[in-house]
Amino acid sequence: MLIGMGGFILIEGYTAVEAFYMSVITISTVGFTEVQPLSDSGRIFTGFYIILNLGIFAYVVSVLTTYLFEGELNRMYRQYLSRRVLRKMKDHTIVCGLGRNGFKACEELLHSGEKFVVIDNSPQSLERYPLAEEFQIIIGDATQDEVLEKAGIHQARALITTLPSDADNVFITLTAREENPNLFVIARASEEKSESKLRHAGAHEVVMPDALGGLHMAQLVTKPHVIEFLNLLNGIGEESQNIELEEVEFEDLIPAFQNKSIRDLDVRNQTGATIIGFKDDKRGFLFNPSADTLMGEGDILIILGNPESIGRFREVFVLNVD
Fold this sequence. Notes:
Blueprint: H1 2-12, H2 16-28, H3 40-69, H4 72-88, E1 93-96, H5 100-111, E2 116-120, H6 125-128, E3 136-139, H7 145-150, E4 158-161, H8 166-179, E5 184-188, H9 193-201, E6 205-207, H10 209-222, H11 224-233, E7 244-249, H12 262-265, H13 267-271, E8 274-280, E9 284-287, E10 300-305, H14 307-317
Parallel strand pairs: 1-2, 1-4, 2-3, 4-5, 5-6
Antiparallel strand pairs: 7-10, 8-9, 8-10
Helix pairs in contact: 1-2, 1-3, 8-9, 10-11
């Protein structure tokens, strides 16, 4: 409108009202009579003005078509819902990077019912992993403070950084620890020399997928049955669907079962599950703990069983079961 009115006033000498009228009938292409006959310069201007407005109209139609028929409107709605969820999220896990390692981490978190949000700078990641549609995802650079804040870094309880660059993982670890000193940080490392840097930066745990993969493959030769058993515990393989591991902290137990010995708990007879490990608050892990071991403050039980027995254990022993 401003371009049209300005052109008709400067080229044809129209009043503001006449220029407004000419602009409206030109944009709308209704073909009403001209206010005054146009000069050659006015006709050239009007021709380009019509082309400009047709281009704008075509662009608007294409944008609307994209939103209505290519799912853009649906994606915007999902992003809106995601932002609402993120604002309310607390005690969640932040996963930086949706590569192979990041996706596996998200898959396990989803399977375990944990709250988490993913940060990735590539929208194409969603296309590689269809299951990622179920994730809360922020498209952005995880090394940027504002992106971590959007992911709720101050309210999060853990952060997993799986970026391919060790330097980026060190930077994210430093930033995360500065923003939230209580955050539990797990970082991926490609080089052995990066492990010490990540720990100095504040990472509680450093995982080297390449080293673990090579060790696993070698042990498939040297200890095949041990690895087969460990795979079952880790949920790998068809038979693993009938085996679950659960960790239960002292604070999660119903008060009647706190400060009791393993014998007094009688977990196996009551639920069918088995206590295979015990983490003492001071002595660390005790494998195959004795029946006289007391469950005290800060201690953790490691429970093994099938889904039914684990479910019964939660019903009998654990607080706040839904």
